């Protein structure tokens, strides 16, 4: 397809040159007659051509080199055409005519390609949009940069939040289950006497780390000590939320009721 297009472009340029040359009306120096040429070239074994010569398509150069602009001592004007792009200008150098056709310089853009080699086949894909920065972060950045880039992607951000909520729901179901009951489900007399809010926070930290991290971030600020990993307020707030989810997780509420 590209080759056919290049051939058509060459034909159009030839037609334009011939029409422009014939319609210009400029004076052209007369060439020597055939008999005079034969007299001049007699015995030298060389011949002189009176017309422009066009190179074949297989000889088209892809770039314009200095040799195309330097006239040869044994040849007349020669037309050199590059088959890519649109005409950019004409250069004249002591009788040598060169038509430069360079490809348009496209805007510098970075293309991201992913190659996945499976045992059975290789998949190549060019990424664009929000997915492209993620691959760049995977190639160059640390995990923190990768995480930030993923969260900037609107589509993935929605899916990530959905997955995090599923994890929190799974943690809550485990804390409220009867098979492995939480401290909050133990409401006997001895359990309430030995109830400890720090132990409750330690349990959440081990069995529900996402839920516990959420509570810790909500109760912390810039002035909070970086070494603090639990607060009584976390235990109270988490207990209220869990009691709202399951009414049997009411150990904290029972202890507070007794104290009041």
In a few lines, what is going on in this structure?
The chain has three domains: 2-17 and 36-100, no CATH class; 112-152, no CATH class; 183-259, no CATH class. The chain has ten helices and six strands, in the order ααββββββαααααααα. It has helices at residues 2-23, 34-41, 131-140, 143-152, 154-175, 189-193, 197-207, 209-219, 232-245, 251-259; strands at 53-54, 78-79, 89-93, 96-100, 112-117, 122-127.
Throw out a few tags for this protein.
two-stranded parallel sheet; 6 strands; rod-shaped; single chain; 10 helices; two-stranded antiparallel sheet; 260 residues
Silhouette? rod-shaped
Quickly count the helices. Answer: 10
Write down the secondary-structure element order.
HHEEEEEEHHHHHHHH
Helix content: 40-55%
Overall structural class, as computed from helix and strand content, comes to mainly alpha
Query: Could you give a short account of the major beta sheet?
Result: 2 strands, parallel
Mean pLDDT: 74
Provide the spatial order of strands within the biggest beta sheet. 1-2
- Give the domain tally: 3
Indicate the low-confidence ranges by residue numbers: 47-106
Q: Terminal Cα separation, in Å?
A: 87 Å
Beta-strand residue fraction: 5-15%
Number of strands: 6
Rg over C-alpha atoms, rounded to the nearest angstrom: 41 Å
């Amino acid at each position: 397809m590209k080759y056919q297009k290049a051939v058509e472009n060459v034909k159009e340029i030839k037609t334009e040159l011939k029409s422009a040359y014939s319609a210009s009306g400029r004076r052209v120096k007369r060439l020597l007659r055939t008999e005079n040429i034969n007299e001049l070239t007699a015995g030298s074994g060389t011949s002189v051509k009176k017309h422009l010569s066009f190179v074949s398509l297989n000889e088209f150069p892809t770039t314009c080199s200095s040799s195309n602009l330097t006239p040869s001592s044994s040849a007349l004007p020669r037309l050199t055409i590059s088959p890519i792009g649109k005409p950019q200008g004409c250069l004249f150098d002591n009788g040598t005519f060169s038509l430069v056709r360079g490809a348009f310089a496209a805007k510098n853009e970075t293309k991201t390609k992913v190659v996945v080699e499976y045992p059975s086949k290789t998949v190549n894909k060019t990424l664009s949009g929000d997915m492209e920065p993620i691959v760049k972060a995977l190639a160059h950045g640390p995990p923190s940069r990768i995480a930030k880039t993923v969260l900037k992607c609107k589509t993935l951000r929605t899916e990530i939040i959905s997955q995090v909520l599923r994890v929190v729901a799974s943690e809550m179901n485990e804390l409220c289950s009867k098979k492995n009951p939480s401290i909050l489900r133990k409401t006997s007399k001895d359990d309430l006497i030995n109830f400890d809010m720090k132990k409750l926070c330690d349990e959440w930290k081990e069995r529900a780390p996402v839920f516990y991290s959420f509570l810790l971030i909500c109760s912390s600020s810039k002035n909070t000590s970086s070494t603090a990993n639990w607060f009584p307020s976390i235990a109270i707030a988490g207990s209220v939320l869990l009691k709202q989810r399951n009414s049997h997780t009411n150990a904290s509420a029972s202890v507070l009721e007794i104290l009041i």
